[in-house]
Amino acid sequence: MQVLEDVTKDEELRTRAIQRLKKKHDFHAHLLVYGMVNAFLVAIWAVTGAGFFWPVFPIVGWGIGVVMNAWDVYRSEEPNEDQIRREMDAMSRQAQPARSP
User: Fold this and answer.
1) For residues 37 and 43, what is the distance between their CA atoms, to the nearest angstrom?
2) Contact 37, 61 (CB under 8 A)
3) What are the pLDDT digits (tens) for 64-98?
4) Of 15, 11, 62, 10, which is closest to residue 36 (Cα–Cα)?
5) Is residue 55 within 8 Å of residue 45, measured between CB atoms?
6) CA angle 61, 64, 69 (to 5 degrees)
7) Helix, strand, coil proportions of the chain in percent (round to 5)?
8) Contact between 23 and 72 (Cβ < 8 Å)
């Protein structure tokens, strides 16, 4: 029985590891595209007279998305037992019908 549990845990861990590696790969691709596109926009700005630095708008706007993507990829994914218990308690309170006086 223990061997079966260990195999199941290993399979689950492998699946989670593959998902995490895919997220990291996708983030690095996103970061590369972000850098290339924004470098191209800065080059256009420089070639067309280098007046007001308008590329700041897509750099900052898209940068917010890149930061959120990084946060999703590199933050701790696993909730701890205390967080799980609090969420379960909140859900059970919401599921209870309202009592009338």
Assistant:
1) 10
2) no
3) 999 999 998 988 777 777 888 888 888 888 877 66
4) 62
5) yes
6) 135
7) 80, 0, 20
8) yes
What are the tokens at 12? 């689950």
Pull the structure tokens for residue 41. Answer: 């926009």
User: For residue 70, which of 18, 21, 23 has the smallest C-alpha distance?
Assistant: 23
Residues 6+ apart with CB under 8 A from 45: 53, 54, 55
pTM: 0.67
Place of tokens 């696993």: 78
Token pair, residue 6, equals 């260990």
- Token representation of residue 28: 């690095």
What is the separation of C-alpha 41 from the centre of its chain, rounded to a whole number of angstroms? Answer: 26
